[in-house]
Specification:
Number of helices: 16
CATH topology of the largest domain: Cytochrome Bc1 Complex, Chain A, domain 1
CATH class of the largest domain: Alpha Beta
CATH superfamily of the largest domain: Metalloenzyme, LuxS/M16 peptidase-like
Order of helices and strands: HEEEHHEEHHHHHEHEEHHEEHHHHHE
Distance between the termini: 61 Å
Helix content: 40-55%
Structural class: alpha+beta
Strand content: 15-25%
Length: 424
């Protein structure tokens, strides 16, 4: 074998990508539209985002039910007609209602752009909320809710958010069986009239862009009366539970669900990129410390992970696992042991390099194609962050030191301030 064939290829560090140029326009009634062009296929992804999440609702299920009813009938079309038209135009769609926002994502061929956007404008601004479809939907939702009551994962997660944010705040408000019976179509119509307005709408378009996209959007979206934008609450509404250790009983459960964490900073805080690195080391990927200890070495669980997540009014960090009932205390003790190690012992160079490469690789995937770029753009746009956020994040991943991680672990993972929820 020649020396040339035996020479190993050079190893180069992964360089995270960056966002493609974003063209921002404003329609005639003030709707902002952000356009990210790229790709070779004649396909677009259009995301319609409304400030109409659960933070806006005044009764449980109002925001999500309003969103779910958008395709169930409008002034022009019945539920069946809407779905037939979407199929006919080859539109794949996703409805979603989250804590801070709600909306609709569509994937479509460019040649159907005008017809599809005309239909979406009808769905967004002329929905009728027919009683028959509402009753059917709520029965299905109630059945799914009752099934979820049997899962310790659901019970633990819901109790976790109620505990860290308080039951009076939308981030922590729990849903009960009675809430399904209390909701009616008038509640949905009132919410819809207040929040499904052009003044609350933003649009992100990505892919191979139809050359007439601005003209089409102005015709069907920009001509609508804008309405009045409404604002959400603020962090002062949080009423954290004074009790730090909570058990949610579930008879007959074969496993127990563990949730440990607390409210924390979000993306707007300068410490957030470092916290993401620290979280990855702790439990943010398959090679993390929690996975190695509690899954591989102790065998207490099939999977355990930690997350540092960002919401508009706050952030939260959470460690999640399901373990057999006999191993709950041991698993929790090991979780706290791993946190304590991060607070006392600097992260070794080899481990930190592994995490740096993993996170850099994940960032590369965030910019792999126009649709991924659109999701990455939204992730900073909705927090009013500058375009160089990802450059700063990549810099932190490359340069953060073991001493800085030690400082962050002591600052944000005080064990006495963590909430511990066990359901089972």
């Amino acid at each position: 074998m020649s020396a040339e064939k035996m020479t190993a290829p050079s190893i180069n560090p992964i360089n995270p990508g960056s966002l493609a140029p974003v063209k921002s326009i404003v329609l005639g009634n003030g709707i902002p539209v952000h356009i990210i062009e790229g790709g070779t296929e004649d396909v677009m992804r259009i995301e319609f985002i409304l400030r109409a999440g659960t933070v806006m609702e005044n009764i449980p299920l109002q925001a999500s039910s309003t969103n779910m009813m958008l395709t169930e009938g409008s002034e022009k079309y019945s539920s069946e007609e809407i779905k037939a038209l979407l199929d006919g135009y080859g539109v794949f769609y996703q409805l979603s209602a989250e804590r801070d926002s709600a909306g609709l994502i569509i994937y479509l061929l460019n040649r159907h752009a005008e017809k599809a956007i005309e239909l979406i404008a009808e769905i967004l601004f002329n929905s009728m909320f027919p009683e028959k479809e509402f009753v059917i939907m709520m029965k299905k939702r109630l059945r799914r809710f009752m099934i979820s009551r049997e899962k310790v994962q659901t019970l633990a997660s819901e109790k976790f958010f109620e505990t860290i944010f308080g039951n009076n705040h939308p981030y922590g408000k729990m849903v009960s069986e009675n809430d399904f019976e209390a909701l009616n179509t008038d509640h949905l119509k009132n919410f819809y009239a207040s929040y499904y307005t052009p003044a609350n709408l933003s649009v992100i378009v990505s892919g191979k862009i139809n050359e007439n996209i601005q003209e089409i959007m102005d015709k069907y979206l920009g001509s609508k009366l804008p309405g009045t934008p409404l604002q959400a609450g603020n962090e002062s509404d949080f009423q954290k539970c004074p009790q730090k250790r909570i058990h949610v009983p579930k008879k007959g459960a074969l496993q127990s669900a563990i949730r440990i964490g607390s409210a924390t900073i979000n993306k707007r805080h300068p410490d957030y990129p470092g916290l993401k690195v620290l979280n990855t080391i702790l439990g943010g990927y398959f090679g993390s410390r929690l996975m190695k200890n509690i899954r591989e070495e102790k065998g207490y669980t099939y999977g355990i992970r930690s997350v540092a997540a960002s919401l508009n009014l706050s952030g939260y960090k959470i460690i999640s696992a399901e373990v057999d009932n006999q191993s709950v205390r041991e698993a929790i003790a090991e979780i706290y042991r791993e946190i304590s190690k991060l607070q006392k012992e600097p992260v070794a160079y080899d481990e930190l390099e592994l995490v740096r490469n993993y996170m850099a690789g994940e960032m590369v995937r965030m910019f792999d194609g126009p649709f991924s770029m659109a999701e990455s753009f939204r992730a900073i746009w909705e927090f009013n962050l500058e375009a160089d956020y990802y450059r700063k994040l990549a810099h932190t991943v490359r340069t953060i030191t073991p001493d800085e991680l030690l400082h962050l672990a002591n600052k944000y993972y005080n064990i006495d301030e963590l909430y511990e929820i066990v359901a089972g």
